[in-house]
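Record 1 of the preview.
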Amino acid sequence: MKLLALTIYGENGARSLKPRRTRMIEIKNIAGDVIFTSEKETLKEALEEAVSQHTVLNGAFLNGAFLNRAVLDGAFLDGASLNGASLNRASLDGASLNGAFLNRAFLEGASLNRAVLNRASLNGAESIVSFGPVGKERRMGYAVDHGDKVMVQLGCWWGDAGCAVQRIQDVYAEGPMREAYIAGVLWAQQQIEVYRKVAK
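->
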């Protein structure tokens, strides 16, 4: 909470100083530097405002943040620390999360269409499973629990597990690459289904 001095001019031109309390939310990076300031009521709203203004939030420190259903499409969050953050049903379509830390984050139903997660750390993250690296390109795949289905991201492609297997069969000729990708998708799907049973 910061105390600001508000200057008010009356009808007779007299000036008075009246203190006004304004709640400011500061988004800081891992080094502790302020990278965005907002007068929004919640961190979720402040982050959405920053993203809507195309603010670069690389390295943002957002551990444990409650960001369920946040709309963060196209966000610049490379190297951001989101350990333990709750991102259930958040929209991160096209977001850049290279090298981001998402350890033990909650991502049930999150949308990651065309999101970039190279070198992201997902240890213990719930409702998301990574698999790979696959082939000489060393590509990683990601599967996300969407409640009634498992969604899969492969590169810039996003779709459910069944469509992912069909896509792999359409794109890759028979051989080790195709088999590795399909095995990864099926394994990730199985891991999410096992987690669902345990979580009940």
